[in-house]
Amino acid sequence: MRRFWAWALCAPLLVGLGGCAGPRPNLHEPTETEVAANLRTAFDYLYDNYYEEIRLENVVIPGLENLRVLEPDLSVALARISKIEAYVEVRLRDELIYRVRDAAWYAGDGWSAIVRSTIKALRTASPRMADATWVETTDLVLAGVAKALDSNAVYLSRSEMKAVGLVVDDESAKDDGIKKPREQKAAAGIRLRYLDRTTRIAQVRRNSAAAQAGLRPGDTVETLEGQPADTYSRLQMNMQFVGTPDSEMTLTVRRADGTEHRTVVLRRETVDDDSPVAMWRNGILYLQVTDLWGETVDYVKKLLQAEREKAAEGVSGIVIHLRGTAVASPFAAARFLDVFYEGDERYFSTIGQSYLGNYTFRPRERPEDTAIRLVVLANGETAAAAEGMVLALQDLGRAVVVGSATSGQGYLQTGSFLLNGGLIAFPYARLVTPANFAIEKRGVLPTVCSGALNEGQAAVVQLKSGQGIINQATRNRKIATGNNAAIRAHRDFCPPRIDQDDRDLELAEAILADPTLYDQILAAGTN
């Protein structure tokens, strides 16, 4: 098993399925026929799988407008003549140079034809685009499409894929009878999260170069290789963290509380094991889940089976760290729930347009332990399928959740390699509870809001008096997705935190050490 921690590669983009599929790419300058096939593949995949209905005006028009990178005087608009008739109008310096009727047939062929004919018209009318290649223009169009769809949708061109090691060099791809090894890539032992053009460290792998340099979850990246972090796109930032083994990178970070700035030099390293970090201490199993895949569940099962004797000696419970866990398969999340739950209640569902986008996850496997007490640690970096797992454990009365509101990402991503060697990835489904509560934007509120409590023993006293506990009546599950004011008020009950301080852990230990307190909090927080 080989994945690179804090990749800018495939799996972090595909938070739903955890993999990429697609055709073998063309390695030469494409013909117009090949361009048509590539665009058709991309548009069909989007049309069939994006979690909301997409139309020409919110996909093709923004994609064509991205050609302003080559021709700043370009403007593209949809002129609707009637309910059934519309035209894509292309102008240079407000002069109409091309007009094509909106495709009345299926997205792939129709939209591909519009893009190709528009590019050909621009090559003729614009000196700046006369020498533009098909690769250059279609890459810009597809990047514009992804940007218009969603802040988490992304298109990687073949050159960008090559830069992060997802495709081999053209020469080494030639079949000359000699198998040439792919250049090994390495990362810096951290995972990043992006919000409002701010890059924060979401996770730091234990014993990594980043951990040894003193980096912490919640640190904000201010500069990278001497350049301000906000000058990098999300893709560019990720690409900077991937390179050859033992190569160095320099960054400046600010602590979460804003009190300290520090510059560190990191050495990139390969990581071959993504197993959860497990540790026993004082009768408690601490399980830190960085990524959630099928092998994660297999590891946890083997661990529990091997520790039967310790459990018989009086283990007080398990603390499951999901702070910063954002890369997760929903199928693995459901299997993880199977380890600790036995019953007929549904876990969560997905809502989208594709088959996988409409799926209900329910118990399927024999549980390992349905009695051991569980405390889950979650924060503002807990995202996607990990949020669904947190919510299910909470609603089923199987775990006490400690920390802050989760990210509210609440959707799953998928993606596909394209014929041109690029990759397109985007959300394909929303996560909802059995009662049809969508996690998107709202997130999951913890049972115990650690930020509302004092530190040390005083927090335990507060908990016993009911302070800091968010009961089921407080968690409003009927807020509309578009009601931003209500969503903010909902999340303000326990604002999302990005740090991973020890207070959550101390509270978890105190709750597990007192079975009566555990049962009291569990009952208050269970739907």
Task: Give a summary of the structure in a few sentences.
The protein is an alpha+beta fold. It is built from 16 helices and 22 strands.
From the structure above, extract its key features.
527 residues; alpha+beta; Pdz3 Domain; 2-enoyl-CoA Hydratase, Chain A, domain 1; 3 domains; 16 helices; 22 strands; disordered N terminus
Sequence-ordered SSE layout with sheet pairings:
Layout: H1 10-13, H2 32-49, H3 56-65, E1 74-80, E2 86-92, E3 95-101, H4 107-125, H5 134-149, E4 154-156, H6 158-163, E5 190-195, E6 198-204, H7 209-212, E7 220-224, E8 227-228, H8 234-240, E9 248-254, E10 261-267, E11 277-281, E12 284-288, E13 291-292, H9 294-306, H10 308-312, E14 317-321, E15 327-328, H11 330-340, E16 348-352, E17 359-361, E18 374-378, H12 385-395, E19 400-403, E20 411-417, E21 423-432, E22 448-449, H13 457-464, H14 484-491, H15 503-513, H16 515-525
Parallel strand pairs: 12-14, 13-15, 14-18, 18-19, 19-22
Antiparallel strand pairs: 1-2, 2-3, 4-21, 5-6, 7-8, 7-9, 9-10, 11-12, 16-17, 16-21, 20-21
Helix pairs in contact: 2-4, 2-5, 3-5, 9-11, 11-12
The amount of beta strand, in percent, is 15-25%
Determine the fraction of residues in helical runs and give it as a percent range: 25-40%
Total DSSP E strands: 22
**CATH architecture term of the largest domain:** Alpha-Beta Complex
How many domains make up the coordinates? 3
The coarse overall form would be globular
Order of strands across the main sheet: 11-12-14-18-19-22
Our count of helices gives: 16
